[in-house]
Automatic annotation (TrEMBL):
This is Ubiquitin-like protease family profile domain-containing protein. It comes from Colocasia esculenta (Wild taro). One of its GO terms (biological process) is proteolysis. The lineage of its organism: Eukaryota, Viridiplantae, Streptophyta, Embryophyta, Tracheophyta. Belongs to the peptidase C48 family. One of its GO terms (molecular function) is cysteine-type peptidase activity. Residues 1-101 form the Ubiquitin-like protease family profile domain. It comes from the Eukaryota. Keywords: Hydrolase, Protease, Thiol protease.
Length: 118
């Protein structure tokens, strides 16, 4: 299962893709998160604590227990993606990232095929 979440933080849009959330933490298809940010100078990892709280809440609403330690073990990947040249088009880039992901996303994400959509 993949979950796409568009985030808006500090006046900037980016895309968080959560992959394999229903999978075991012990195999090649472990849960992971991919943060796509068109303005890397915005320091996207500042949002990591908020992202991890969101994931913990997501697990909780699905009736699954997940400790902070378990949520903390989910990889947060920050691949190189096309970057915007000014501070005004992040929304367009976010839509483009969504399009690319949906166009070619496999049913199950594997680290061996990452990043296949950029």
């Amino acid at each position: 299962m993949h979950v796409l979440k568009v985030t808006y933080c500090w006046g900037h849009w980016n895309l968080l893709i959560m992959c394999n959330l229903g999978k075991s933490f012990n195999n090649n298809y472990s849960p992971c998160m991919i943060l796509l940010d068109s303005l890397i100078i915005s320091e996207p990892l500042k949002a990591e604590p908020t992202i991890r709280r969101f994931v913990k809440d997501l697990y909780h609403t699905q009736g699954k227990l997940a400790s902070s330690r378990t949520i903390g073990s989910i990889s947060l990947l920050l691949p190189k993606v096309p970057q915007q040249k000014d501070g005004e088009v992040c929304g367009v880039f976010t839509l483009y990232y969504i399009y690319l992901f949906l166009k070619s996303a496999p049913t199950t994400f594997s680290f061996t095929s990452y990043p296949y959509f950029v």
